[in-house]
Write a structure and sequence with these properties.
Blueprint: H1 8-19
């Protein structure tokens, strides 16, 4: 994945969405 150093926030958000967002 070439977007970890670029946008770590995006990766974290992706994981949160995959696991289940606290909505």
């Amino acid at each position: 994945m070439v977007g970890t150093s670029r946008a770590p926030e995006l990766t974290i958000k992706s994981v949160l969405v995959t696991r289940g967002p606290p909505a």
